[in-house]
Design goal:
Strand content: 15-25%
Number of helices: 16
Distance between the termini: 55 Å
Shape: elongated
CATH topology of the largest domain: Rossmann fold
Strand order of the largest sheet: 2-1-3-4-5-11
CATH superfamily of the largest domain: Response regulator
CATH class of the largest domain: Alpha Beta
Order of helices and strands: HHHHHHEHHEHEHEEHEHEHEHEHEHEE
Structural class: alpha/beta
Length: 372
């Protein structure tokens, strides 16, 4: 059986890669004559696989070899095949929609949604999710859950089978939604480790490793006294980035690292930098790029040159790192890849409700620019 699968992969890959142009040209010729929309059979012919294999990929069935799935997805893209959603729902008992939920249980002003969606981080998440769900004809439906009423509405819609699963962004330690989704057995994947220990799948980055990279780079530049602006210390990311930086600096002989807590906003970065100005430092690690922009503004206001007087490193490698002056040296977390993996995981949980929860941890990298 394995040999048959390998043969199918090799044959289909050769058809797409080696002879794809001719196969697709023949297909287009046939289509121009037939004047009919592409079908599973058309996709199977271009991919060089069976109709059943195409059907399993289209319906998100789990037991398809990854290489074979990629070949079929490319054939779907080439042919322009669009699944019949109504027919597929009857077979799979799925809606073909997942909720992309940004959950913040605290009551906010009307400006809150604009603030969330203006954050470059969120756009990167959406891009990664669409990269995977688009070819599968699974539609992410954006939902902002910022109140008790919004949370009840989401749970009601899930209870009515309006969504097949949930992609969840939530970092507030008071948020009860992750636990509710777990108890309701809704296929759910989170971006970032949950604040509380609950059985839920998630993707994350190795925060402490990234903070260590920042510390090592500042020391390599010759910085003698460094400080840091942490994220919220009631979140795993805030805790891990601070702990990783302090541990790394201790290994370099700096026993005490002045720190101020931020909130991942530019205003929070400005406020935290003002608090640190009483300490003497020539290197600053900021737990995200948006706060780092705030730090640059305050340092400039107080006559500090970057990087000559203070070297500054951020975290994320968001668009904010390129929009500021000087451009920001930062720790990159591959947000698009992480979001894409979220989408793959939730599709797997939808296809197999008994699947064990899992975590996928991505490695950060240092991106060197002008600020350090």
């Amino acid at each position: 059986m394995l040999g048959c699968v390998d043969a199918e992969i090799e044959t289909s890959a050769a058809r797409i890669n080696g002879h794809g142009e001719r196969s697709l040209a023949c297909y287009k010729c046939c289509m121009s004559t037939e004047q009919a929309p592409p079908t599973l059979e058309h996709v199977a012919k271009v991919a060089g696989v069976s109709r059943a294999t195409v059907s399993r990929v289209v319906n998100g069935i789990r037991n398809v070899d990854p290489e074979l799935r990629e070949v079929v997805e490319r054939a779907i893209e080439q042919t322009g095949y669009v699944p019949n959603r109504a027919a597929r729902s009857l077979v799979t008992r799925r809606t073909g929609a997942v909720a992309l939920v940004v959950s913040e249980p605290t009551t906010h002003t009307d400006a809150f949604p604009g603030g969330v969606f203006a954050d470059p981080f969120f756009g990167r998440v959406v891009s990664g999710v669409l990269r995977v769900l688009g070819p599968m004809d699974v539609n992410p439906v954006l939902m902002l859950v910022d109140s008790e009423k919004a949370r009840r509405q989401l749970m009601n819609r899930l209870g009515q089978d309006r969504f097949d699963g949930v992609l969840l962004i939530s970092i507030d330690p008071r948020d009860v939604l992750p636990a509710q989704l777990t108890m309701a057995k809704v296929p759910t994947v989170m971006f970032a480790r949950p604040v509380r220990s609950i059985p839920i799948s998630y993707v994350d980055v190795a925060h402490q490793d990234g903070a260590r990279m920042a510390a090592d780079h500042l020391v390599a530049r010759g910085c003698k006294q460094v400080a840091t602006i942490s994220g919220p210390l009631d979140t795993p990311a805030g805790q891990d980035r601070l702990a990783g930086f302090r541990t790394a600096m201790a290994r370099h002989g700096q026993a005490y690292v002045p720190s101020a807590e931020g909130d991942f906003t530019q205003t929070g970065g400005e406020r935290a930098t003002e608090m640190l100005l009483g300490a003497k430092f020539d290197g600053l690690f900021v737990a995200n790029d948006v706060m780092a922009i705030g730090a640059l503004e305050v340092l400039r206001k107080h006559g500090k040159r970057v990087p000559e007087d203070v070297a500054v490193i951020g975290f994320d490698d968001s668009g904010a790192a390129l929009s500021c002056r000087p451009q920001l040296t930062t720790i990159r977390q591959p947000v698009e890849d992480m979001a894409a993996e979220m989408a793959r995981l939730v599709v797997g949980h939808i296809g197999d409700k008994g699947r064990d929860v899992t975590s996928v941890i991505f490695e950060p990298t240092l991106v060197t620019r002008e600020s350090a």
